[in-house]
Here is the input.
Amino acid sequence: MPAPKRSDAERNRAKILVVARAAFAEQDADVSMAEIARRAGIGMATLYRNFPGRRELLEALYADEVDGICAAAETIDAQTPGAALLAWLRQAFAFFASKHQVAALLLKQPGADDHFFNDNRSRVLAAGRPLLEAAQHSCEIRDDLSIEQVLDAIAAVAHVQRPSDYLEPILLTVLDGLRVSAGSA
Amino acid sequence: MPAPKRSDAERNRAKILVVARAAFAEQDADVSMAEIARRAGIGMATLYRNFPGRRELLEALYADEVDGICAAAETIDAQTPGAALLAWLRQAFAFFASKHQVAALLLKQPGADDHFFNDNRSRVLAAGRPLLEAAQHSCEIRDDLSIEQVLDAIAAVAHVQRPSDYLEPILLTVLDGLRVSAGSA
Here is the structure.
């Protein structure tokens, strides 16, 4: 019976990712694989069948978040192309703030490689580029920045080590600065 | 003859700082104290009388740059308080971009301490605060950010590891976003 088996496997994988995401977000992110299996209510064999090691698990978490931000770029609902871009950049900001921790853990793993980060960066850039181009085409968003520059600006703010209510007006400043109505300094 | 003697000492100190600033800005910042003395055309005894070690020399370079940005806040010449703030923030941006390297070297030195950085951070904040308050009072600059948030935003952009022509439109975006005319996202 391959169908129900696959569904079980999918459920397990999803459960592991939810538990692992919560575990790695804790103060002490040094959670063992055994502890993750325990919290997910599965055996070690099942955990390792899904993720041979800590690095693979962290990579899956990271790629999962990238999937989410890429999917958001295609489904975002807004009145104008400019509003769509700004709404998506808000989601990208939350993504950069959260991925920072997973990325930091991932970089400490043996075998962590640049290709992985570069591939995922390329995916986010590719997802955001049509949104930026549409918003620039409709003359709502300034046209002197590329999608790389826009996302680097958002990521730079997200990586400031301060609470979110401190960062919020800084993010607003950058988003306001992207609007064409802002004039030029 | 104390007067000429002091003048010699000042000249030597200034010469060492100029040479050291250039040396530490090079690709390979691992320049020896002996090499710095050689380039400054002074003896090792004179160098060590001014700066007992590498850490003291880096701290002097750093404090010297902080002096510069603080002095600029008092002498900036612009049409309006808003223009004065934005002009000063441009200088602060250049300062953050350059101090990054000295700070990175300084943090590697034994005995590098947080008090030193915190004291200097406080001095920059104190220098910029009256400029921001005046510009907010004249309704040119948005009033939902503190001087800490404004400078963190500028520093975040300065620390993105990209060439200055890449960063320039990002900096412009932040400066434009600070203007009240920018509306709100």
